[in-house]
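Possible regression after last week's pipeline update?

I re-ran a chain I had predicted before the update to compare outputs. Posting the input and the new output here so someone can diff against the archived version. Not blocking, just want to make sure nothing changed silently.
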Amino acid sequence: MESQAAEKGQTPHRIDLTRVLLLLAIVWALVASVWRFWTCDDAYLVFRYAQNLVEGKGLVFNAGERVEGYTCFLWVLGTAPAFLLRIRPEIWTGAWGVAFYLGTIGLLGRHHVSLRNSLGRPPGLFPIAALAWAFCPDANIWATGGLETSAFAFLLVLGYVLLAEKEVTTGRAVAAGLVFGLATLTRPDGALPAAVAGLFVLWAAPARLRAGAAFGGAVISLAVPLEIFRLAYYGSLVPNTYWAKSASLAWWSQGLSYLGLWVDQYGVLLLSVPLALLAVLVGRRGGGPPPGRQVEWARPAALAASLALAWVLYVTRVGGDFMYVRLLIPASIFALVLFELALFGLSRALPGLVLAGLGLLPAVTPLLLARPVSGDFFTSGVADEWAFYAPWRQQEADENGETLRRFFHGLNVRILVFGSELRMAYRSEAPEILEAHGLTDAFVSHLPLAARGRPGHEKVAPISYAVGVRKIHFMFQRSSWRRFRMVRELPEIRIQFGSVEGLVLYWDPPVVRELVRRGAVVEDFPAALDAYLARMSGLPRTTVAADYRRFRLFYFDHVSDPAREQPFLVRLESQ
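New output (post-update):
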């Protein structure tokens, strides 16, 4: 066929295997991410902020409370149109997340093609980073989830590609600066890769000072207005979550544990470092690309390695995250890029089959290894969130939230929720929600750190604050009631909202009466007080004093009931 085409003066038709592989990778990534579609509980913080913004309540979690309880400003704004268009936010954020994920794979594939065209067509090399990221199980998982993870990764890779593929002109520096600026608006810690990229511009650009100033000016043009807004609107230069998670305190031991869990499954990516060093040595001895072309892989390799290393150090310092792998996704991508670049550097020194075998490792190895974190179990405080929030658990949270919404409608109900209850709380549409670990509350987030615990869950709203100040009516997680020994501070009064059981924290007679009218079942606390008073004379004074303190916070401090309170005062003053 080819000889006949040549005789007729036609160019033989050749299948570009690289493009076929990239297409298959994108199709696989699309199917895998849709199959693993899910929404994590933290996304419902974003949804509530976005919904309140659209409804005219402001960029707030609770109406009237200006607290920046999110770390993804641009993602919150990007979620708001879902409420204008009446699209479920889970679908909206999931679709955009998948789009950014596929875009990242496309950028990685484009980067490969660009390098291949610059260095020739090394035999045995295929788009390693793009294929490995398409098959990476955690990349599939965090394509959705409702958070900004996928969008943030896309922006970092786009900024990298703008600086790595061609000579860093002033125009490319401006474009990259705007992209890294958008990454900083998407996550505050995007400032770190932006700084690394800025140093790269100063090192690699022919007109260093001009390009560096252009890059920095582009980043600042986006970052500074956000800081001005943040300070004016929230009264702080950093999100409230910075304080809630004690981000100012180094926690290297926990960070190393988090990194170790990543190494258990993705440790093969660490080979990128010795491979890159070997490629440098081979290149110096003449076994790599021709001298004029060595920079085509070495310069982008320096940027990829710097971005990966800086991010790993940052994540390790802050103690990692409670979500397995998620916080290390940027480092994973740039480690893959470095792996591929190193093989480009070794392309003339190694046989094609060896290059192909090495290239398969990053894609195949993580699939063969058991996940170190799975199911409902925490390992070093880290959970596999996708496995934890299984479909049945998400459905249960939705049903419970809808039940609560029917009971709470039109009532000024205030509830206390813990991390795994945010989906239920969002569905309940309770007017006021106190997230127990302080993500959306400035008082709790600024509490001193008593002891290190599970990352992001170390501070807990004191009962004296939740009830005495915030006047929170109900909570639902009995395990937290037991874990924090709340019975020492409040009487244990249960309330049943249909199939949903709760605990009363603040006895509000009008609210309780209306909820009972709507079908809620709750212990009659005044009647329980009468029963207590009937047997109080036989109780030790210390017991009565402790119980009275609990009853005051729960009832007497805000309910005028002298007939029931006076016997306590008489008993406690009589001795």
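Follow-up from reviewer: compared with the archived run. Confidence is low (pLDDT under 50) at residues 1-13. Marking as no regression found.
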